[in-house]
């Protein structure tokens, strides 16, 4: 199945819910917790069919890039910088990936990028507005 939604674009962090509870639950180190709090992350998505390059630009010049193809195992990196392997799937127009200690979904909703991470019942939601 080809990706039903066009994810390509640049999105700037707009707001989130449940950040502290979630990062505590996944055991994120405190320096990373502070770095990620209300931070104007810009997410840049390059999409070519089912091939994606997903880059997060953090203030201060740090970036995290994950490159993957829907339905194929890929080398990925977590919020905390841990490396792991995951297969990103497409379910109901959402990209779904199982990280080591949380499940992550991403979808385009009303022109915004909505990402939801769930760990042991704690749901973290991040919304980003399209800027390019």
UniProtKB/TrEMBL annotation:
<dbReference type="InterPro" id="IPR000463">
    <property type="entry name" value="Fatty_acid-bd"/>
</dbReference>
<dbReference type="InterPro" id="IPR031259">
    <property type="entry name" value="ILBP"/>
</dbReference>
<keyword id="KW-0813">Transport</keyword>
<comment type="similarity">
    <text>Belongs to the calycin superfamily. Fatty-acid binding protein (FABP) family.</text>
</comment>
<dbReference type="GO" id="GO:0005737">
    <property type="term" value="C:cytoplasm"/>
</dbReference>
<dbReference type="InterPro" id="IPR012674">
    <property type="entry name" value="Calycin"/>
</dbReference>
<keyword id="KW-0963">Cytoplasm</keyword>
<dbReference type="Pfam" id="PF14651">
    <property type="entry name" value="Lipocalin_7"/>
</dbReference>
<protein>
    <submittedName>
        <fullName>FABP6 protein</fullName>
    </submittedName>
</protein>
<dbReference type="GO" id="GO:0008289">
    <property type="term" value="F:lipid binding"/>
</dbReference>
<feature type="domain" description="Cytosolic fatty-acid binding proteins">
    <location>
        <begin position="9"/>
        <end position="26"/>
    </location>
</feature>
<keyword id="KW-0446">Lipid-binding</keyword>
């Amino acid at each position: 199945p080809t990706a039903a939604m066009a994810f390509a674009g640049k999105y700037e962090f707009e707001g989130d819910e449940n950040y502290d509870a979630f990062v505590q639950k996944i055991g994120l180190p405190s320096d990373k917790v502070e770095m990620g709090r209300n931070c104007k992350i810009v997410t840049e998505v390059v999409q070519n069919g089912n091939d994606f390059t997903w880059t997060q630009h953090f203030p201060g010049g740090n970036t995290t890039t994950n490159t993957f193809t829907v339905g194929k195992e890929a080398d990925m990196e977590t919020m905390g910088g841990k490396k792991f392997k995951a297969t990103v799937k497409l379910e109901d127009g959402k990209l779904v990936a199982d990280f080591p200690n949380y499940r992550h979904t991403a979808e385009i909703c009303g022109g915004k990028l909505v990402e939801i991470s769930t760990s042991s019942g704690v749901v973290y939601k991040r919304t980003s507005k399209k800027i390019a």
